Amino acid sequence: MAGAGAADTHVVVVGAGPVGLMLAGELRLGGADVTVLEQLDAPTTQSRASTLHARTMEIFEQRGLIDGPAGFGDPLPPQEPRGHFGGLPMDLTLPSSHPGQWKVPQVDTEEILGAWAARLGARVLRGHTVVSLTQHPGHVEVVAEHAGRQVRFTGSYVVGCDGEKSAVRRLAAIDFPGNDAERELIRADVEGIDIPGRRFQRLPNGLAIAARRGDGVTRVMVHRFGTPPRAGEADFADIVTAWREVTGEDISGGTPLWVNSFGDASRQAVRYRDRRVLLAGDAAHQQMPIGGQALNLGLQDAVNLGWKLAATVRGRAPEGLLDTYHDERHEIGRRVLSNIRAQARLLLGGPEVEALRSVIGELISYEHVRAHLAGMISGLDVRYGPADEPEPVGTRLPEVRLDPGTTTLRLLRAARGLLLVTTPDEDLRARLVRSARSWSAAVDTVTAHAGRSGPLSGHPAVLVRPDGYIAWAGGSPDGLQAALARWFVPGTPAGRPAHTHTDRPPGTPRTGTPGTSTPHTGTPGTGTPGTGTRNAGTRNVSTHKGRRGHMGNLTGKTALVTGASRGMGRATAGRLARDGALVAVHYGTSQDAAAEVVAEIEKDGGRAFTVQAELGTPGDVHELFLALEQGLKERTGSTELNILVNNAGVMGGVKPQDTTPEQFDRIFAVNARAPFFIIQRALTIMPDGGRIVNISSGLTRFANPDEIAYAMSKGAVEQLALHYAKALGPRGITVNSVAPGITRNGNPLFDIPEAVEAMAALSAFNRVGEPQDVADVIAFLASDDARWITGSFVDASGGTLLG
Q1: Which pTM does this prediction carry?
Q2: Residue 173, in any domain of the structure
Q3: Given CB 3.0 to 4.6 Å as the disulfide criterion, which of 23, 33, 208, 696 pairs with 737?
Q4: Tens digit of each residue's pLDDT (9 = 90 or more) over 398-419
Q5: What distance in Å separates the CA atoms of residue 197 and residue 219, rounded to the nearest whole number?
Q6: In a domain, 375, yes or no
């Protein structure tokens, strides 16, 4: 074979449309390596699908794809409550965080999902046309043509997201039975025409639709009653002729941006999985894109499949998990195809369907009928599992606002399992939490107050799958454990060796994290720790050294703490991990001490890993971020950093007259230069709303002539907060300085009672500071509670600076 450049990966996804890109992102969140092959050399400019329904928007909210400059909310297009069923107007509004429908051009959807998948580490290779596919007992081989040569890819699985003419489906010989098209719509986006708007206008000769966009482009669609589908592709002359015959208007003077036709063909693959080949989106089902259901159906296929396939290739899936993809989505696809066939008949039928349209129109006026049809079109009525399971099992997790400042959907951003415990019964809550502890590698436990009324009331706890569907609800620890075993495998928190890894593609190495003392082979793909307990609904703030809080207010966040192997840095890393963050524990030379910090965090149910870089040396920041980004990507599928704590520093310890230029330069290199360039580099991977905390010193306000150089360097650190805070305000990133006073740091001086007594006398509280005292202040500034504080100098000296 020519050009046999192999590219091993866990999963080969064929097709970089919205469904393939959504799947790639979901797989990366689950920690799977992904290569996407796309035959087009560049993204399409044809916005064929333009409707996003409520369930899809909820999923985007779950994954953090709505808010921020890189999401659909930049700005979010207007919500449209009105939709249709077969051209009959109907209100689609149902209880949801995003009710109704949203008009988003497909090119925008692809751009947003493509950028998201890329940030998570998916590799998209364009100009690759798949020409052969071979399944083997332990892997699948895909051959693609690219630039005149053939390239071979091997993976554990291949997923066809390559449309209704899917090469993957054809090469895997998966049957695609159904009905050929009997009717067609021709459509085009046209510039330079001025025609009346039409919403499913039925005229004597056919159906006409015209909608003018904000940019002046008009989308036109037309069907001539009784006209069968054409054999080839439609062109602009075809739609000009059809439009004239149906409406009597001439649009030939316009400029077509694109033209195509689609028919009412209806087909569905007999199976969505054949051993190591899977299908999603239009590769699995072909239907007329009426009301935007086709795109939404495909995106929801991807979210159902992504976590299951990622768990399988990572060796973290219970028996039969991957088979549930076909079991669940094939039935949903069958049902959607059925309602689309009915709509196609109502929409494209001639005078013979007028009586039927009249009857259906009357029925839609009844709320029960309207809600039934709206649920089906929007995807909000999807329910998985046996019908005899009591609700809410099998239904989606609704958005519920939890105190403080988070929602149920936000808790799903890391695409992990979620045990949400809402019972006020402390004994039952403790038993449920203990029951889930063995599954903490895959399931996050959050305790919260969800209110006495609402969709979660009456259920002490719910277990939620990574795709947002409820797997169990109740108060029985035994029932909970049975549900956990059904969907997940037990294991220690990610970051410890898992000792299992199946379905690894040939040639794929086991990867570790630079600077760690133990190998990382646990479950990646989360930004949240596998904790035993977190509480998103109450605020039991930890106020005593060693006392564990139950805040969980940093669930889903990632943090870097420099100089975290001892003292305040160690205490800060532990506190942030207890609050739910995945913490990168930086150290310079004390590898064993840093490993102890990670071990303590993991023992307490949190997640952390070490990164090594000796600050103040050439290449220090580059080395630090190489290790950091690799560690984050292995565990979360992304390099995103939410919290930065610049804690590392060196003291001078010499009188000013004895300070050498080398000592002075060393102090500034570690204490001032490194934080500046660490911030500079961190901002390339920090999303809007991030937190930066720089550790200064009380010596910028309290004179000690033996530490002039040190105090100068810390004064520079305070300027970082002042000026960066102004620059980063538009991004919602806060930057603050924390100034500790005399704080126990392992110095032998703290072992001398008389010295401790003298130092304690300087504090308003008559004691020396403990590392946890400062860590708690830092944790506050890292939380959303401190969102209105930036550019500040925070005195954490215990009143030493009061004079």
Answers
A1: 0.65
A2: yes
A3: 696
A4: 998 886 567 899 889 889 999 9
A5: 10
A6: no
